[in-house]
Amino acid sequence: MIAIIDYEAGNLKNVQKALKFVGYDSIITSDKQDFGKADGIILPGVGNFGDAMNKLRQKQLDKQISDIILSGKPFLGICLGMQILFECSEECPGVQGLGIIKGSVKRFPDNMGLKIPHIGFNSIDIKPNTRLFAGLNDNPFYYFVHSYYCHCTDRDIVAATADYGITFDCAIEKDNIFAVQFHPEKSSTVGLNTLTNFLKTL
Q: Would strands 26-29 and 2-5 be described as parallel, antiparallel, or unpaired?
């Protein structure tokens, strides 16, 4: 069973539906006991970095997430759920992220001549021997919706990058921690394959 962390963010139900489609049960919850029983944890989300961190702290889920990751249980962050793993974001200066991944979240420059937010399918560049992208070709397409992107300090844990005017980190793998900027639950077959690959780490 997968526990989907409920911190009043959007897109939780879509992730639950995708998990059901690939044959895996899940529960949307903020209960510590459910996290303990779960085989793996997913932190989805769309919205504002500061609002998300405030809600996580109000529910004391920031500590729960740290404890889950320290326990070694497989953990997947999606979109905003990836960004809040980092130390800070230009979206909300002064608001501390979880700091589990060293690095920061930056806004796409306005002078690129491209629409912001970045919305739609975009190919990604997969690094060799990644677990999330096992069995996929080198440049699969995933669905993105974001105005901010992650920059990881430790380049060794970057599992994939994408280009949208600039090159940005769109997936990380570090021990039991996985995170993606794109939405696998909205990315058709390749997205479902990525979720399945995460489930294989349980």
A: parallel
Whether 11 and 178 have beta carbons less than 8 Å apart is answered as no
User: How distant is the alpha carbon of residue 1 from its chain centre?
Assistant: 19
Annotated catalytic residue, options 88, 92, 118, 183: 183
> Which pair of tokens denotes residue 99?
């700091």
- The answer to whether residue 90 is catalytic is no
CA distances from 16 to 4, 12, 21, 165 (A): 8, 6, 9, 32
Q: Is 92 a catalytic residue?
A: no
Give pLDDT tens digits for 43-69: 998 899 999 999 999 999 999 999 999
| CATH, domain 2-199, list 3.30.70.3490, 3.40.50.720, 3.30.1380.10, 3.40.50.880 | 3.40.50.880
Catalytic-labelled residue, pool 88, 152, 173, 185:
185
CA distance 74 to 76: 7
pLDDT digits (tens, 9 = 90+) for 111-158: 999 999 999 999 999 999 999 999 998 899 999 999 999 999 999 999
Marked catalytic residue, from 79, 92, 150, 152: 79
Catalytic-residue membership of 170: no
* Closest to 42 (Cα-Cα) out of 21, 8, 15, 72: 15
**Three-state secondary-structure class, residue 135:** coil
